[in-house]
Automatic annotation (TrEMBL):
Enzyme class at the top of the EC tree: transferase
Keyword entries, A-Z: Aminotransferase, Transferase
Alphabetical list of PANTHER family matching this protein: AMINOTRANSFERASE FUNCTION, HYPOTHETICAL (EUROFUNG) (PTHR43510:SF1)
UniProt cross-references to InterPro entries, sorted A to Z: Aminotransferase_I/II_large, NHTrfase_class1_PyrdxlP-BS, PyrdxlP-dep_Trfase, PyrdxlP-dep_Trfase_major, PyrdxlP-dep_Trfase_small
Family of the protein in this entry: Belongs to the class-I pyridoxal-phosphate-dependent aminotransferase family.
EC numbers, comma separated: 2.6.1.-
UniProt xrefs under CDD domains: AAT_like (cd00609)
One Pfam family of this chain: Aminotran_1_2
Protein source organism: Sulfitobacter mediterraneus
Domain of life: Bacteria
Aminotransferase class I/classII large domain sequence ranges: 56-360
Cofactor field: pyridoxal 5'-phosphate
Molecular function terms, GO-annotated: pyridoxal phosphate binding; transaminase activity
Top-level taxonomy: Bacteria, Pseudomonadati, Pseudomonadota, Alphaproteobacteria, Rhodobacterales
Record's protein name: Aminotransferase
């Protein structure tokens, strides 16, 4: 089976561990186990509870404790509507493999994580892309979406909050998109891995699985929960989807690791404290980035309303990949080229890093821009 090379992952694989300041990072500053224990009201002595954990297979769909904690993140999801996966990347792959067949019509809103158009295309689906535009605040044109979604549409794929723009669709827009899907009797898949990082209110984006009867939400422990090292995600959606996913999942997952399951449950049971930390980091750091953009004449943007990343439009006559490689070699700062998302002329920056790294990295980028 042919599949297109995964642009952003190839970039990160090549450069992520060769930089001094990783402003391409997409996770809120990662937690240590010690920090997770402290946020959970525990300490190092509680690790002794793991000593009796027998390292056999875990519960196939996720432990009862973990699934209960995941359900608490939603308004309408119960245990039969949730299944645990190897990261959100595994969740997305399983949904596409389970729900899409050759010849199906898929509508994908881009830019987004490449899985949502390259996997359906590799299966043989007819993929139609709706491109987000800066002049629309990187929000979808719903009239254009209505034109693309025909009665033959099998699935619509969206990403909210959006990677790489940081744009946020509010509940009213999600309900309109759900109605577009409903009119076509289409599934609506929403990659919600950045859920919990909104810049206002409680920080928690409305979930498509709670809004639409054929809505599918994917998420995981990496971005807002600062625990990418656990490699644990999930799918929330109708039982029909969960059962279809279960058939495919038996071939490539069986179960997630028991230690991953344990620490993910611990974090989700303390989600209020974990997410409070993430909100403070993302909100404080975005204010720093906003001040920097305001004072940098060669940079423009649409200020993000959520997520940990955003796009910067740069006024330099240089392809984005060449810009990022030269920046890295001269300053040690890593960004992600917009070309990895089909967005030439832009750079993706992550702003949920340690604050000192962000401040130092932005100063180095300014010095680099001044020399161009």
């Amino acid at each position: 089976m042919h599949i297109d090379p995964f642009g952003v992952e190839i970039w990160m694989n090549e450069w992520e561990f060769k930089c001094e300041l990783n402003l391409a990072e997409t996770c809120v500053e990662s937690l240590t186990i010690e920090q997770l224990l402290a946020l959970s009201g525990k300490n190092a002595s509680d690790l002794s509870a793991l000593l009796d954990l027998k390292m056999t297979y875990g519960e196939i769909r996720g432990s009862t404790r973990l699934v209960r904690a995941i359900c608490a993140l939603y308004q309408r999801q119960t245990a039969e509507n949730v299944i645990v996966t190897h990261g959100t990347i595994g969740a997305n792959m399983l949904v596409h493999k389970s729900m899409i067949s050759r010849g199906d019509r898929v509508v994908a809103v881009v830019p987004t994580y490449q899985q949502h158009y390259s996997i359906p295309a590799s299966i043989g689906a007819e993929v139609h892309q709706l491109r987000l535009r800066e002049e629309d605040g990187f929000l979808p044109d719903l009239d254009a979406l209505r034109c693309l979604v025909t009665p033959q549409t099998r699935l619509i794929a969206i990403n909210n909050p959006n990677n790489p723009t940081g744009a946020l669709m509010d509940r009213a827009m999600l309900e309109e998109i759900a109605q577009i899907a409903r009119d076509a009797d289409a599934w609506l898949l929403c990659d919600e891995v950045y859920r919990g990082t909104d810049q206002h209110g409680d920080g928690m984006t409305d979930a498509v699985a709670d809004i639409y009867e054929k809505g599918i939400s994917t998420a995981g422990m990496s971005k807002a929960f600062s625990l990418a090292g656990l490699r644990l995600g999930w799918i929330a959606g109708p039982s029909e989807v969960i059962e279809a996913v279960s058939i495919h999942r038996d071939y490539d997952t069986i179960s997630v690791g028991k230690i991953d399951d344990h620490f993910a449950a611990l974090a989700l049971e303390s989600s209020d404290r974990v997410l409070a930390r993430s909100k403070k980091i993302t909100r404080d750091n975005l204010a720093i980035l906003e001040d920097w953009v305001a004072g940098e004449p060669k940079i423009a943007w649409v200020k993000p309303k959520s997520a940990t990343v955003t796009l910067l439009r740069y006024d330099v006559d240089m392809p984005s990949e060449a810009f990022c490689i030269q920046l890295l070699k001269e300053t040690g700062v890593l960004l992600t080229p917009g070309s990895a998302f089909g967005m030439e002329g832009y750079l993706r920056i992550g702003f949920a890093n340690p604050q000192a790294d962000l401040i130092t990295g932005l100063a180095k980028i300014s010095d680099f821009l001044a020399r161009l």
